Amino acid sequence: MSDILAAAGLTKAFGGLPVTRNVSLAVRAGEIHALIGPNGAGKSSLIGQLAGTLTPDAGRVTLDGAEVTHLPPHLRARRGLARTFQVSALIGGLSALENVALAVQARAPRPLAPFRRAAGDAALEQPALAALAAVGLAERAAAPAEVLAHGERRALEIACALALQPRCVLLDEPLAGMGHAEGRAIVGLLGGLKGRFAMLLVEHDMEAVFALADRVSVLVEGRLIATGPPEAVRADPAVRAAYLGEAG
Amino acid sequence: MTRLAAALAAALLLAAPLAAWAAGNAYLLALGTRAAVFALAAVSLQFVVGFAGLVSLGHAAFLGIGAYALLMLGGAGLDETLVSLPVAVLAGALFAWPTGWVALRTRGVTFLMITLAFGQMAYFVAEALADYGGDDGMPLDRAPPLAGTALLAQPVAFHLFVLLLLAAAIAAARLLGASRFGRVLRAARQDAGRVAALGFDVTRVRLIAYVAAGAAGALAGWLLAVTTGFVSPALLDWRVAGQLLVMVILGGVAAPEGAAAGAVGLVLAEEALSAASEHGRIALGALLLGAALLRLRLRAPAR
What Cα–Cα distance (Å) separates residue B36 from each residue in A169, B31, B173, B235, B267? Predict the structure, then answer.
């Protein structure tokens, strides 16, 4: 299986504080690769370097084999890297449908057409509706993003990512702040999308990680201490000592 | 609210020639024309402040560039509207491009300060133009001909010319705001990181908006020069930029017609209050405060 997104020797420090230490990680085509680690392990910094909001001090990031280490986020997005945010980032004032339509627009011909009315544009809204239907939000299409329930907002973010027709999606704690039932709904949703694109899933919810992931990487103090199939990682003594043991 | 204010402002501007004729007071028409020109300037600034969410304190530079373009072309005998107007607009865009490119590396207060700095630079350049009156400025030789005719020297015709351009600017701003481009611009105002993550080049989108606003600002400057018949560095004063900002905020930021109404309201209120008393400007401060408080109360969720 080929690597869609790969990091090689990523290193990053803020001031004197190293947050990423020589991390090499690959997300293969079609897999769900989970990234776990205790709070402060450097998961968000690593996601930032993969998405392009942070520049590593050393190391490389490749997307589909091409180096993207110094590309800004929007150019990585155009090459097929989508992401969802830890703090749900939807555009208020726009409906659920319009939020997804904005994502469709990013992939449409003439995405910045200056005199083409955006609202009601079927070329944007039909694919957007399809993406909403895929996450079970079709009936909420007209609802303003800010009135959606927490779980619905997360599903909407996933619909936006879906509409980008990505090669790989970075999911930054998609279950954060969610109740158990809501969380299981998102797990079911992500499971159903498995295979359509590769996913790097950053998540604290171990039940979700072990239900979804093909492989798991464990980040502790900026360093990857294990990568492998869930069962092997779960059994790894170093991981148990550093992370799972602590978590109980 | 915005709609009502815009309708009222439009009625006032349209009625200005009639009022001047009925009262036998040509000054009323000149005042109306001036209000309409500032309305156009406010519409151009609203595009940056309201749609893009970038508060600029350097917009007076564009007024000055448009005005000086006409003065300089007039000196060379090229003040024909069909030449000098497009050149003025182009000059505004050409100034906006590099200065916007630099200013857009920053956000918030820093953006405000950098636009102010560029505005001040333009001000001092204008002051140094000894051939064009230095810090005293210089009168225009004549109203610029339009296709060889002296039509714009006729106050009512010029007033209608300004209203036509104002209406076109509002229509264009509304169209742009509702377009795909406008949706990206407004979404980036809320969350630039998210919009970039979708694959949009946020800086580029903002720069296009800034350049368009600069071009329209220069158009207003060209008209302002014709309105007053005089061009001086005072047009580029940062207080003019601040005044434009007040007009936009007074009109409610969200819609171009609101900014136009804010401009008309401010120009007329200033005039009425300073005519009523020499301390009238104190009342203007209270009026602005009241309007701001009213705005806070009326504020509906941004749509």
Answer: 51, 9, 16, 16, 9
Chain B residues inside the 8 Å CB shell of A108: 180
- Closest approach of chain B CAs to the CA of A163, in angstroms? 10
Taken in order of first residue, the domains within chain A and their CATH numbers are: 3-247 (3.40.50.300)
Q: What is the mean pLDDT of residues A1-8?
A: 89
Residue B296 pLDDT grade (very low, low, confident, very high; cuts 50, 70, 90): low
Cα angle A157, A59, A168 (rounded to 5 degrees) comes to: 25
Among all residues of chain A, which has the CA nearest to that of B180? A118
Q: Which helix (H) or strand (E) holds A102?
A: helix A96-107
CA atoms of B246 and A36, how far apart (whole Å): 51
Task: For residue B196, give the chain A residue with the closest CA.
Answer: A74
Query: Mind listing the domains of chain B with CATH numbers?
Result: 2-298 (1.10.3470)
Compare CB distances from A77 to B178, B186, B197 and report the shortest one's residue: B197
Q: Reply yes or no on whether the pLDDT at B292 is more than 80.
A: no
Question: What token pair was written down for B129?
Answer: 């133009």
H-state helical runs in chain B: 2-23, 26-46, 60-75, 81-103, 108-127, 155-178, 180-190, 192-197, 202-228, 238-250, 256-276, 280-298
pLDDT the model gives residue B302: 43
Assembly ipTM: 0.90
Whether the Cβ atoms of residue B264 and residue B34 lie closer than 8 Å to each other = no
- Amino acid at position B244, single letter: L
CB contact under 8 A, A118 and B198: no
From the list B179, B180, B199, the residue facing A74 with the nearest CB is: B199
Digit-coded pLDDT (tens) for A56-86:
999 999 999 999 999 999 999 999 999 998 8
- CA of B172: which chain A residue's CA is closest? A115
List the one residue out of A6, A37, A11 whose CA is nearest residue A23: A11
The 3-state DSSP composition of chain A as helix, strand, coil percent (nearest 5) reads 40, 25, 35
pTM of the model: 0.91
All residues of chain A having their beta carbon less than 8 Å from the beta carbon of residue B182 are: 114, 118
| Residues B201-234: tens digit of each pLDDT | 999 999 999 999 999 999 999 999 999 999 999 9
Describe the crossing of helices B256-276 and B238-250 by its angle, rounded to 10 degrees.
110
Mutate to test the interface with A, among B51, B183, B204 (most CBs of A within 10 A): B183
Between A159 and A90, name the one with better pLDDT: A159
pLDDT digits (tens, 9 = 90+) for B147-204: 989 888 899 999 999 999 999 999 999 999 999 999 999 999 999 999 999 999 999 9
Q: Among partner residues A85, A98, A117, which is closest to B194 by beta-carbon distance? A: A85
CB contact under 8 A, A117 and B178: yes
Contact A78 B193 (CB under 8 A): no
Nearest to A117 among B179, B195, B205 (CB): B179
